[in-house]
Design goal:
mainly alpha
Length: about 190
């Protein structure tokens, strides 16, 4: 979602040529969503993890560790081979850093990965809307705030997290992404 915003909703934020934006977005979707998701399903299929829900923190170590390593490799690839634009590369670095931080925190406490990702996206939207004014990000910001509330409510309803786990997950993603993007875009 971050790359879709950068490439299409805030086109003056990047120097990526229009003819490769779709290919770049597809590559990001495959490498940061599809492959990690299939890896988790593969771990479940091989009975390496008992459930894709990863109900306790011990079940999260291997999947989160694998995803962190995969993001590091993809980020290096973006930096070394696809260095079209500093913001694109920085976005991968910031997201990878957030995922690594989430993985490290998971060794000590189960926090909400859902809210870490959503709040990180919210922070990036907010910084982008301040740095590139024009009103195109108002509705995505409002929608993301609402989505954060819905997801948090659902996680509580399903008894998947305690309120503190949701708050820490939200804070982890929001603070990490807000600070990194704010200072990068100065």
């Amino acid at each position: 979602m971050v790359f879709a915003v950068i490439l299409y909703l805030v086109p003056n934020a990047t120097q990526v040529p229009g003819e490769i934006k779709g290919s770049l977005l597809l590559m990001v979707l495959v490498t940061t969503l599809l492959i990690p998701m299939l890896s988790v399903f593969g771990l479940r299929y091989m009975d390496t993890i008992p459930s894709i829900h990863m109900a306790n923190k011990k079940e999260r170590f291997l999947p989160f560790g694998m995803v962190s390593i995969f993001y590091i490799v993809v980020t290096y690839f973006f930096y070394a081979r696809l260095n079209y634009d500093d913001l694109i590369v920085f976005s991968m670095i910031a997201m990878t850093g957030t995922i690594i931080l989430l993985t490290v925190v998971t060794f000590f406490w189960k926090v909400s990965a859902h809210l870490t990702g959503l709040s990180g996206f919210l922070a990036i939207l907010m910084v982008m809307s301040w740095k590139f004014p024009g009103g195109t990000l108002l509705y995505p910001v409002i929608g993301t705030v609402l989505l954060c509330g819905v997801v948090a409510s659902c996680r509580l309803y399903l008894d998947a997290h305690k309120p503190a786990e949701l708050a820490v997950g939200f804070g982890l993603g929001f603070i990490t992404c807000f600070v990194s993007f704010y200072y990068f875009l100065l």
